Amino acid sequence: VDLNTVNLPRVRVDSPATPASFQVPLTYRLYDVNASTCSIVVEYSMDGGGTWHPATAGPGGESTTGLTSAVTGVGHVFVWDALADLGYGTHSAVRIRITPSDPATGSSHATGDFSVVNPHGDFDLDGDWDLADFAAFQACFGQSVAGGCEGADFTGDDQVTLTDYELFIAGFTGP
Left if phi > 0, otherwise alpha if psi is -120 to 50, otherwise beta: which for 162? Predict the structure, then answer.
């Protein structure tokens, strides 16, 4: 045991269910022999841990500061806005890494690889393509993807066209 690191905070993050979508809840435990108030840095990787980027917090999770810890660990939840960071589409070999501090930086822990599927067409992020999504798609038809229409561009040409409409209708679940 390295006595220089025994007082540093540690974290253990659980891998989310896969495939994950849109807003991804990540459960983790903070450990600290001094039960110090901790902060965390959350990062994501799209290449199995080769490179890391700051993760955007989504609605419903806890703050990244002022977090309780204990020798036995305290459970917390960070909600990752995977749509903001990854965009629409299917992404594999995604990982999340959390690094705690109290204020000294402790040991990081990362999830295993998981996939994220953020399907085009689901504007209200409720897992289906229904009339609410159709209304949003309709408002984007004939437009560029700027201004919130990215989810209507199935073809990736930065325009919402008849081809995108046909692909949206093919996945429409209604009502």
Answer: alpha
Burial of 136 (0-12, 13-18, 19+ CB in 10 A): middle
Query: Hey, what are 101's tokens?
Result: 């501090």
Ordered DSSP codes for 70-84: BTT-EEEEEEEEHHH
Which alpha helices (DSSP H) does the chain contain, by range? 82-86, 131-140, 162-171
Record the tokens describing residue 139, joined without a space.
Answer: 């408002």
Residue numbers in the chain where pLDDT is lower than 50: 1, 3
Nearest residue to 12 via CA among 71, 96, 98: 98
Residue 27: phi and psi, rounded to 5, are -95, 140
What backbone phi and psi angles, to 5 degrees, belong to 133?
A: -70, -35
The backbone torsions φ and ψ at residue 130, rounded to the nearest 5 degrees and listed phi first, read: -125, -165
Residues 108, 97: contact at Cβ < 8 Å?
yes
